[in-house]
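Translate sequence into C-alpha coordinates.
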Amino acid sequence: MIEVIETDPDLAALAPEWAALWQRCPAATPFQSPHWLLPWWRQFGTGMPRVAVERRGGALGGLLPLYILPGERKALPIGAGTADYLDALGDPAPLLPQLLARLADDPVDQLDLIEVPPWSRLLEIADIDWHQSSPCPVLTLPDLPAGIRRKLRMNRHRADRAGGWSVETADAANLHASLEVLVHLHQSRWMAEGLPGVLADPMVLAFWRDAAPGLLAAGLLRLQLLRVGRVAAAAIMALLAPGRLFFYLSGFDVTQSFVSPGTLLLGAMLEQANAEGRTEAHFLRGREAYKYAWGAADRLNYAGRLAPPRASSAR
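Result follows.
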Protein backbone atom coordinates (compact mmCIF):
# COMPACT_ATOMS: atom_id res chain seq x y z
CA MET A 1 0.00 0.00 0.00
CA ILE A 2 1.25 3.47 -0.93
CA GLU A 3 0.10 6.69 0.70
CA VAL A 4 1.22 10.30 0.51
CA ILE A 5 1.80 12.10 3.81
CA GLU A 6 0.71 15.72 3.59
CA THR A 7 0.80 17.21 7.11
CA ASP A 8 3.56 18.13 9.52
CA PRO A 9 2.16 16.05 12.43
CA ASP A 10 1.86 12.95 10.24
CA LEU A 11 5.43 13.45 9.03
CA ALA A 12 6.78 13.78 12.59
CA ALA A 13 4.84 10.67 13.68
CA LEU A 14 6.64 8.65 11.02
CA ALA A 15 10.03 9.08 12.75
CA PRO A 16 10.40 5.65 14.46
CA GLU A 17 9.43 3.65 11.36
CA TRP A 18 11.53 5.94 9.20
CA ALA A 19 14.60 5.41 11.37
CA ALA A 20 14.10 1.63 11.25
CA LEU A 21 13.80 1.71 7.44
CA TRP A 22 16.96 3.81 7.21
CA GLN A 23 18.83 1.18 9.23
CA ARG A 24 17.73 -1.50 6.74
CA CYS A 25 19.06 0.41 3.69
CA PRO A 26 22.85 -0.13 3.54
CA ALA A 27 23.45 2.45 0.80
CA ALA A 28 21.61 5.21 2.64
CA THR A 29 23.55 8.18 3.99
CA PRO A 30 22.70 10.21 7.11
CA PHE A 31 21.10 12.76 4.79
CA GLN A 32 18.19 10.30 4.29
CA SER A 33 17.63 9.71 8.00
CA PRO A 34 14.83 11.34 10.00
CA HIS A 35 17.53 12.57 12.38
CA TRP A 36 18.62 14.92 9.58
CA LEU A 37 15.43 15.57 7.63
CA LEU A 38 12.95 16.20 10.45
CA PRO A 39 15.09 18.97 12.04
CA TRP A 40 15.54 20.35 8.53
CA TRP A 41 11.76 20.41 8.12
CA ARG A 42 11.29 22.17 11.45
CA GLN A 43 13.54 25.00 10.26
CA PHE A 44 12.94 25.18 6.51
CA GLY A 45 9.64 23.39 5.95
CA THR A 46 6.79 25.09 4.10
CA GLY A 47 3.95 23.21 5.80
CA MET A 48 3.34 21.33 2.55
CA PRO A 49 5.13 17.96 2.76
CA ARG A 50 4.45 15.42 0.05
CA VAL A 51 6.08 12.23 1.29
CA ALA A 52 5.25 8.96 -0.44
CA VAL A 53 5.52 5.86 1.75
CA GLU A 54 5.02 2.22 0.90
CA ARG A 55 3.98 -0.36 3.48
CA ARG A 56 4.52 -4.06 3.03
CA GLY A 57 2.85 -6.32 5.54
CA GLY A 58 2.29 -3.31 7.77
CA ALA A 59 5.98 -2.33 7.83
CA LEU A 60 7.48 0.71 6.13
CA GLY A 61 9.26 -0.50 2.98
CA GLY A 62 9.90 2.64 0.95
CA LEU A 63 9.95 6.42 1.37
CA LEU A 64 10.41 9.34 -1.00
CA PRO A 65 10.28 12.69 0.85
CA LEU A 66 9.32 15.76 -1.19
CA TYR A 67 7.79 19.13 -0.37
CA ILE A 68 6.16 22.01 -2.18
CA LEU A 69 7.85 25.37 -2.52
CA PRO A 70 4.69 27.30 -3.38
CA GLY A 71 6.21 30.67 -4.26
CA GLU A 72 8.22 29.02 -7.04
CA ARG A 73 5.51 26.50 -8.03
CA LYS A 74 7.88 23.58 -7.70
CA ALA A 75 8.43 20.45 -5.63
CA LEU A 76 11.83 19.52 -4.24
CA PRO A 77 13.31 16.78 -2.05
CA ILE A 78 13.13 17.53 1.65
CA GLY A 79 16.64 18.53 2.70
CA ALA A 80 17.42 20.56 -0.43
CA GLY A 81 20.18 23.08 0.19
CA THR A 82 21.83 21.52 3.23
CA ALA A 83 22.09 17.87 2.14
CA ASP A 84 24.74 16.77 -0.35
CA TYR A 85 22.93 13.54 -1.23
CA LEU A 86 19.13 13.52 -1.71
CA ASP A 87 17.58 10.12 -2.26
CA ALA A 88 14.71 7.74 -1.61
CA LEU A 89 14.75 4.84 0.81
CA GLY A 90 13.78 1.51 -0.70
CA ASP A 91 12.48 1.23 -4.27
CA PRO A 92 11.29 4.62 -5.58
CA ALA A 93 9.73 3.23 -8.79
CA PRO A 94 6.22 2.67 -7.33
CA LEU A 95 6.41 5.83 -5.21
CA LEU A 96 7.14 8.44 -7.87
CA PRO A 97 3.94 7.95 -9.94
CA GLN A 98 1.83 8.35 -6.81
CA LEU A 99 3.62 11.57 -5.96
CA LEU A 100 3.27 12.94 -9.47
CA ALA A 101 -0.46 12.18 -9.43
CA ARG A 102 -0.78 14.00 -6.10
CA LEU A 103 1.26 16.98 -7.29
CA ALA A 104 -1.12 17.38 -10.24
CA ASP A 105 -3.62 18.90 -7.78
CA ASP A 106 -1.06 21.20 -6.16
CA PRO A 107 0.34 24.63 -7.15
CA VAL A 108 3.27 22.90 -8.82
CA ASP A 109 4.55 23.08 -12.39
CA GLN A 110 7.68 20.98 -11.93
CA LEU A 111 9.43 18.47 -9.72
CA ASP A 112 13.19 18.89 -9.46
CA LEU A 113 15.09 15.85 -8.26
CA ILE A 114 18.48 17.29 -7.34
CA GLU A 115 21.75 16.05 -5.79
CA VAL A 116 20.82 12.44 -6.53
CA PRO A 117 23.87 10.26 -5.70
CA PRO A 118 25.30 7.97 -8.39
CA TRP A 119 24.21 4.81 -6.53
CA SER A 120 20.55 5.89 -6.24
CA ARG A 121 17.79 3.65 -7.54
CA LEU A 122 16.07 6.79 -8.77
CA LEU A 123 18.52 6.71 -11.67
CA GLU A 124 16.93 3.44 -12.82
CA ILE A 125 13.74 5.32 -13.73
CA ALA A 126 14.23 5.58 -17.48
CA ASP A 127 11.65 8.26 -18.32
CA ILE A 128 13.55 10.92 -16.38
CA ASP A 129 16.09 12.91 -18.38
CA TRP A 130 19.02 12.75 -15.97
CA HIS A 131 22.07 14.97 -16.27
CA GLN A 132 25.24 15.17 -14.18
CA SER A 133 25.41 17.89 -11.57
CA SER A 134 27.57 18.50 -8.48
CA PRO A 135 30.96 16.84 -8.02
CA CYS A 136 31.40 15.14 -4.64
CA PRO A 137 35.05 14.03 -4.27
CA VAL A 138 35.55 10.75 -2.42
CA LEU A 139 38.76 9.37 -0.88
CA THR A 140 39.23 5.61 -0.86
CA LEU A 141 40.80 4.54 2.41
CA PRO A 142 43.51 3.87 3.44
CA ASP A 143 45.21 5.55 0.47
CA LEU A 144 46.85 8.89 1.24
CA PRO A 145 49.31 10.66 -1.06
CA ALA A 146 52.94 10.64 0.04
CA GLY A 147 52.98 14.44 0.09
CA ILE A 148 50.10 14.52 2.56
CA ARG A 149 51.83 12.01 4.81
CA ARG A 150 54.97 14.17 4.84
CA LYS A 151 52.91 17.27 5.61
CA LEU A 152 51.20 15.50 8.50
CA ARG A 153 54.52 14.43 10.02
CA MET A 154 55.96 17.95 9.69
CA ASN A 155 52.95 19.67 11.24
CA ARG A 156 52.70 17.14 14.06
CA HIS A 157 56.31 17.92 14.97
CA ARG A 158 55.52 21.65 14.90
CA ALA A 159 52.47 21.17 17.10
CA ASP A 160 54.51 19.07 19.54
CA ARG A 161 57.01 21.89 19.84
CA ALA A 162 54.18 24.43 20.33
CA GLY A 163 52.88 22.71 23.46
CA GLY A 164 51.54 19.43 22.15
CA TRP A 165 48.28 18.61 20.43
CA SER A 166 45.27 16.50 21.25
CA VAL A 167 41.93 15.53 19.74
CA GLU A 168 38.67 15.69 21.71
CA THR A 169 35.46 13.99 20.62
CA ALA A 170 32.14 15.55 21.54
CA ASP A 171 29.72 13.46 23.57
CA ALA A 172 26.26 14.12 24.97
CA ALA A 173 27.69 16.02 27.95
CA ASN A 174 29.77 18.52 25.99
CA LEU A 175 28.07 18.56 22.57
CA HIS A 176 26.60 22.03 22.97
CA ALA A 177 29.92 23.55 24.04
CA SER A 178 31.82 21.73 21.27
CA LEU A 179 29.29 22.89 18.68
CA GLU A 180 29.70 26.48 19.80
CA VAL A 181 33.49 26.14 19.39
CA LEU A 182 32.94 24.90 15.84
CA VAL A 183 30.57 27.79 15.12
CA HIS A 184 33.09 30.31 16.44
CA LEU A 185 36.01 28.82 14.48
CA HIS A 186 33.98 28.49 11.31
CA GLN A 187 32.68 32.05 11.43
CA SER A 188 36.06 33.52 12.40
CA ARG A 189 37.78 31.71 9.56
CA TRP A 190 35.36 33.05 6.93
CA MET A 191 35.28 36.54 8.42
CA ALA A 192 39.05 36.64 8.01
CA GLU A 193 38.43 36.25 4.27
CA GLY A 194 35.67 38.83 4.22
CA LEU A 195 32.97 36.22 3.68
CA PRO A 196 30.00 35.30 5.89
CA GLY A 197 30.23 31.49 5.87
CA VAL A 198 27.22 29.19 5.90
CA LEU A 199 26.69 29.49 9.66
CA ALA A 200 26.04 33.20 9.35
CA ASP A 201 22.53 32.20 8.28
CA PRO A 202 20.49 32.01 11.52
CA MET A 203 18.23 29.31 10.09
CA VAL A 204 21.20 27.08 9.25
CA LEU A 205 22.62 27.64 12.72
CA ALA A 206 19.24 26.83 14.29
CA PHE A 207 19.06 23.66 12.19
CA TRP A 208 22.39 22.44 13.51
CA ARG A 209 21.55 23.21 17.13
CA ASP A 210 18.34 21.26 16.66
CA ALA A 211 19.76 18.33 14.68
CA ALA A 212 23.10 17.67 16.40
CA PRO A 213 21.79 15.97 19.60
CA GLY A 214 19.60 13.52 17.68
CA LEU A 215 22.32 12.74 15.15
CA LEU A 216 24.81 12.11 17.97
CA ALA A 217 22.39 9.89 19.89
CA ALA A 218 21.78 7.85 16.72
CA GLY A 219 25.52 7.35 16.15
CA LEU A 220 25.50 9.47 12.97
CA LEU A 221 27.56 12.45 14.14
CA ARG A 222 31.23 12.86 14.96
CA LEU A 223 32.35 16.30 16.12
CA GLN A 224 36.01 16.59 17.06
CA LEU A 225 38.19 19.45 18.25
CA LEU A 226 41.94 19.74 17.92
CA ARG A 227 43.80 21.59 20.65
CA VAL A 228 47.33 22.90 20.33
CA GLY A 229 48.40 23.34 23.92
CA ARG A 230 45.15 24.54 25.47
CA VAL A 231 43.93 26.43 22.42
CA ALA A 232 41.04 25.05 20.34
CA ALA A 233 42.73 25.33 16.96
CA ALA A 234 40.37 23.38 14.67
CA ALA A 235 37.00 21.67 14.64
CA ILE A 236 35.44 19.27 12.15
CA MET A 237 31.92 17.92 12.06
CA ALA A 238 31.44 14.68 10.13
CA LEU A 239 28.53 12.32 9.57
CA LEU A 240 28.80 8.55 9.84
CA ALA A 241 27.30 5.58 8.03
CA PRO A 242 28.47 1.97 7.74
CA GLY A 243 31.86 1.97 6.02
CA ARG A 244 31.78 5.70 5.29
CA LEU A 245 32.65 9.08 6.76
CA PHE A 246 31.18 12.35 5.43
CA PHE A 247 33.11 15.55 6.16
CA TYR A 248 30.48 18.26 6.45
CA LEU A 249 31.64 21.37 8.30
CA SER A 250 34.91 22.69 9.68
CA GLY A 251 36.64 25.70 11.12
CA PHE A 252 40.10 26.61 12.34
CA ASP A 253 41.92 29.35 14.20
CA VAL A 254 43.85 31.37 11.62
CA THR A 255 46.37 32.39 14.28
CA GLN A 256 47.39 28.72 14.56
CA SER A 257 47.93 28.25 10.82
CA PHE A 258 51.66 27.64 11.34
CA VAL A 259 50.78 24.08 12.39
CA SER A 260 47.98 23.61 9.79
CA PRO A 261 45.45 22.58 12.47
CA GLY A 262 42.78 21.65 9.92
CA THR A 263 45.21 19.26 8.24
CA LEU A 264 46.19 17.73 11.58
CA LEU A 265 42.59 17.11 12.60
CA LEU A 266 41.55 15.82 9.19
CA GLY A 267 44.47 13.40 9.22
CA ALA A 268 43.56 12.15 12.70
CA MET A 269 39.94 11.62 11.69
CA LEU A 270 40.95 9.69 8.57
CA GLU A 271 43.27 7.47 10.60
CA GLN A 272 40.44 6.77 13.05
CA ALA A 273 38.03 6.00 10.20
CA ASN A 274 40.53 3.59 8.67
CA ALA A 275 41.06 1.86 12.03
CA GLU A 276 37.29 1.43 12.28
CA GLY A 277 37.22 -0.33 8.93
CA ARG A 278 35.64 2.51 6.98
CA THR A 279 36.57 2.39 3.31
CA GLU A 280 35.44 5.80 2.04
CA ALA A 281 35.74 9.42 3.14
CA HIS A 282 33.32 11.74 1.34
CA PHE A 283 34.37 15.38 1.00
CA LEU A 284 30.92 16.26 -0.38
CA ARG A 285 30.02 18.98 -2.86
CA GLY A 286 32.62 21.25 -4.39
CA ARG A 287 35.97 21.08 -6.15
CA GLU A 288 38.11 22.78 -3.51
CA ALA A 289 41.77 22.03 -4.16
CA TYR A 290 42.49 20.55 -0.74
CA LYS A 291 40.14 17.62 -1.42
CA TYR A 292 42.24 16.47 -4.37
CA ALA A 293 45.46 17.07 -2.44
CA TRP A 294 44.22 14.37 -0.05
CA GLY A 295 43.71 12.00 -2.98
CA ALA A 296 39.95 12.28 -3.45
CA ALA A 297 38.42 11.63 -6.87
CA ASP A 298 35.20 13.07 -8.25
CA ARG A 299 31.89 11.29 -8.13
CA LEU A 300 29.10 13.20 -9.78
CA ASN A 301 25.59 13.65 -8.50
CA TYR A 302 22.65 13.78 -10.90
CA ALA A 303 19.58 15.93 -11.40
CA GLY A 304 16.33 15.45 -13.29
CA ARG A 305 13.11 17.36 -13.84
CA LEU A 306 9.56 16.09 -14.24
CA ALA A 307 6.17 17.75 -14.67
CA PRO A 308 2.98 16.58 -12.95
CA PRO A 309 0.30 15.29 -15.38
CA ARG A 310 -1.73 18.50 -15.18
CA ALA A 311 1.27 20.64 -16.00
CA SER A 312 2.24 18.30 -18.86
CA SER A 313 -1.19 18.34 -20.47
CA ALA A 314 -1.42 22.11 -20.24
CA ARG A 315 1.60 22.65 -22.45
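Note: The longest strand covers residues 59-69.
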